[in-house]
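Write out structure tokens for X-Pro dipeptidase.
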Amino acid sequence: MTIGTSDVATQLAAIRPPATRVPPIAAEEYRARLDKACALIAAAGAGALLVHTGASLRYFTGVPWGATERMVALLLPVTGEPVMICPHFERGSLEADLAIAADLRLWEEDEDPVALVADAVRGAGGGTVAVDPLMPFAWMERLRAAGATLVDGAPVIDGCRMVKSPAELACLAEAKAMTLEVQARAAAILRPGIRASEVIRFIDAAHHAIGGGGSFFCAVQFGRATAFPHGLPGDQALEENQLVLIDTGCRVHGYHSDITRTYAFGQVAQEIRDIWAIEHEAQAAAFAAAAPGVPCEAADAAARRVLEGAGLGPDYRLPGLPHRTGHGIGLSIHEPANLVRGDRTPMAPGMCFSNEPMIVVPDRFGVRLEDHFHVTETGAAWFTEPQPSIDRPFG
């Protein structure tokens, strides 16, 4: 699709959702997740895992709720039935979302849910509980005071969530395909004077129309604002011969897309084109470094070698790359492991990462190309093909 050749109404009318949609995660996969978690709990020397509301609760139970001040949690014992802690008045909603068989332990508004957790721990044989790192500290101190021994549950949770199943890869692939099409259609509606807010509204409407449930997030930056990785306040108007950076994503069954394109609206300076080419090379180098058994930090190092060879950096110095090269992605938009120095997690088939070694020229401009890949048995595979050029962002 060509930059700046269409309008909002035309592009929205042309969108069609996929003819065949990816199915949600099946019941047998939830059971397999629980079984894997139990093995990891036992290997960690714990008797149960306590999971807080959020992406990890959704991963193990199908319940897609966000956290509030009211405790909703899963206690998964190594032996015995999973236990769900939930406010009594939420029972109907919980049962409608719950994808696993579980013992419901419900609490009224004047009761203490931590006491229910403590009782469930004792019922599971007491001892050591591996705790979700996102569980509120105050609740866990009260659980500790009730006699439980607590250890970090991240090795259990990350040990399950980092490696994606074929069903999860399919959800991620569909979400990313949707967002890439939306990105292309957003480029088509650009015109001099268009406000960033209008582009953001279009992208949200396009994500709805294509079946992604609207935008999970959206950043639209023009000119100087591209030098700030997460933009600047205010509502910019696009000018002729400016650099455009758009970063956005949606979700399919909770699984995220997160794609950035940076391109020229008209003519831009040769310096910008040169930096764009270095960014493109760095992204390719990070991808080429990915393979089973390779530590995650190696991809970050590969991207930085390209930048340093071009006189940028080193490390996080600017002009250069001010942040990690990439992050894990799945039910959370940012999740372990990360493509960053110090993360020595060995890559494994099924692990999924963003690849976005952004180059910032302070207070002037920035270039970020972001696509995602998954590790295969022999190397890595792109979910979306990288941007081919600064003038042809979508081929």
